[in-house]
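Example record used in the benchmark description.
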Amino acid sequence: MHRLLTLAIAFVPAVSAADAYLATAQAKLQLIEDSKARRGSVIFFSLQEINAWAKYMVPTIVPEGIRNQRVTLGTDSGSASALMDFLKMRHAQGKTAGWMERLLEGERPVTIAIRLQSGQGRCKVDLTRVEISGIAATGTVLDFMVKTFFLPLYPNAHINEPFEIGYNIDRIDIRPTGVRVTIKR
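Model output (structure tokens):
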């Protein structure tokens, strides 16, 4: 019993820290969404805030079939990794996969890499790589995955095409330590 209590006490600060990062990320997002950010200001989302948001909010968007999500950032690039069960994700949408169910069944490590360019209120997110169980998907396989799994979840997503950012945002810059959102002047 003593070990369990010690483990629980050691775990509480980590949960509280993640909750604090989530709270600050959500407050910053709300500031942007409510158009209350000062003109010309830069709002910085730390890597810890981004990962806390992913940990707690992704399950509200994709309720089944994804866990252990983690984001890593580079310069104008980023990647997200998780354990994913594509069949569970499809079933959570109320859809079946037909003849492909046996192929999609089971949890697999997935990594998705993107490159981001933005400026003057516009943005382009290029999908650069998808890796499933250590095997990279490219070309028609990658196109199939985007059309079959990603776009049904996010039908308004703009992958590999420019779009207006909105929310009075001028640009978004990805750096290894976080993401800078610059509000228009």
